[in-house]
Amino acid sequence: MIKIGITGIIGSGKSVVSSVFRILHIAVYNADYRAKVLMNQDPDIQNEIKSEFGEESYNDSGLNTSYIASVIFNDESKRKIINSIVHPRVKQDFLDWSNQQSTEICAIESALIYEANFSDILDYIIKVDATIDVLTKRIIKRDKISKEEAESRINSQSFNLDEKYKANFTINNDEQNSLIIQCMEIIKKIQTNG
Q: Which secondary-structure segment (H or E) carries 100?
């Protein structure tokens, strides 16, 4: 089984690329979604989060996301604590999930491929990229926020995988290039290389 990571910053189009991969019969694991499921369903994770962040970490609806966000937003040490609880569980969940797939290739979609140490279990990493202008417009439209808020979110996540990390492939999702063709070409190269 070939494992691919799909990464990029907010608004880059990771989810759109994942949708194209699914159309191309590649199973895709959504790390953000699964992290939320695990935080709401895994009693061990819940107990660790409550131990670190207090009983108010959960309410009748499950994880108290607004409380957790307020705690970790401005405190890097708190963010690292929650990541140290959740990321290893998501990584193992992905490995368990990938072992159940019948496709030749599977993928994980995550903005935190490197930060969560998923890169060490992946054969290839694809960076989804777009211009700042395109990113800003997408985030404004999707999240219904101001230009300043969109730019702030982009700046808080800004990273250059080409310099900071090694991506095997880059998909330019700037509405100028065909996303489907780029995905098909990458899959063909991966299948050829194994």
A: none
| Stated length of the chain | 194
Six-digit token pair at 44? 């061990």
Q: Rounded to the nearest 10 degrees, what angle do helices 14-23 and 179-193 cross at?
A: 60
Q: Classify burial at 193, counting beta carbons within 10 Å of its beta carbon; exposed 0-12, middle 13-18, buried 19 or more.
A: exposed
Cα–Cα separations (whole angstroms), residue 122 to 18, 97, 108: 16, 14, 9
CB 110 within 8 A of CB 6: yes
Quick: pLDDT tens for 135-194. 889 889 988 988 988 887 777 666 554 555 589 999 999 876 799 999 999 999 999 986
Nearest residue to 53 via CA among 30, 84, 32: 84
Q: Going from the N-terminus, what domains does the chain have, and what CATH number goes with each?
A: 2-26+103-193 (3.40.50.300)
In angstroms, the CA 5 to CA 106 distance is: 9
- The reported pTM is 0.88
- Under the banding of pLDDT at 50, 70 and 90, the label for residue 42 is very high
Contact yes or no for 104/1 (Cβ under 8 A):
yes
